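Same chain as my last thread, 429 residues:
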Amino acid sequence: MRVGASLSEASEPVRPVLSYRPFVMFFVGRIVSILSFQMLVVAIGWQLYALTGSAFDLGLLGLAQFVPMIALTLVVGHVVDRYDHRLILLGCQLAEAGAAAILAFGTATGWLDPAVIYTAMVVAGSARAFEIPTMVAIIPALVPRAIVPQATAYFATANQAGAVIGPVLGGVLYGLFGLGPVTVYGAAIVLWCVGAFFIFMMHLEPVTRAAGAISLRSALGGFAHVWKDKVVLGTISLDMCAVFLGGAGALFPVFARDILQTGPWGLGLLRAAPGVGAFLTSLTLARWPLTMPVGNVVFGVLTVFGVALIVFGLSTHLVLSLAALAVMGAADVVSVVIRFSLVQLRTPVEMRGRVSAVNGMFTGTSNYLGDFRAGAVAAAIGAVPAVIIGGAGVLAITALWLVMFPQLRRTRRLDEMPPAEAKPAPQAA
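reply #2:
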């Protein structure tokens, strides 16, 4: 029986988001998980740049996460639609902890080199290829349909809370206190284990899983659904292109050390700054959901994102750079909440895993490829021109999509076009 399929559940009044215990477990587990990952990214970035001094090598970190993401896309969708979401998330948490263990052991024993770092990122990237679509698909099973956008905003808040605290904590542990990368990796391992515990404690009612044999046609079902829904296609592809062109995270070690003249603590602040803006904005969205026409909002926030990226590229002052990154984070989280909500609310429950995998592939891989693009361009013409060109590209793509996807531009509400199946809203026990 599908969660929330009974008449009594359908008639039960909607409660506040945080009154649903499974969602609370999920929320805390996500904060801890993203906290761990962000700590890991800071330590890896500074350690790799110290080893090689190459912006191109920093870009390869994104490529190391892109390869498993793209390779596993079709498999991920089927796994998410057919197997217990909780067990999938548990496995992902433990795999990411394993990647951190590789880095900790390699650093402590002195045999860590770029190849080992890339291998660990491939492991982490493989885990995240399963983790992200599962987290997107699970939210409608944790709360009623009416508050899915609000729950998504809380999900974004969890992401950004970790994105704020994680880089700062990682940078402080690594550089300011002089504890080095082993301490950062060890702390990340512990936190991932804590996150796994909260996921384990997340009780879910049985849900209807996708049935039928696995075939190429069913594997491509997520792509077919996205292609047919021009609103979802428009928002996913726009975000993909913007993230690809706007990727600058791989260059943060270059900006921190060579342009802004700071240490690991400064790198931590740069990593945290987008999260600060995103965190404050996601809190606002959780308290006051979007009421403006969402199509116009998408194009507006991505325009702001592009301008802020150009400002960051031109800045030579730490405070201005942090402010520009905070604005970028605020704009990005609005786009993320809209995109995730559209995917969840406009997709039939039995296809959410495959559609979420497509969403994760486009946006996740573009993130990693964006880092690779930034690193490659920076190696050729410098870090500053690479970032400025990316910001100009975001503005150009936004203008082009405004013309190409009038359906998205005219969309007013997140639930304007519900999924084809008219089923009662899920409700957590």
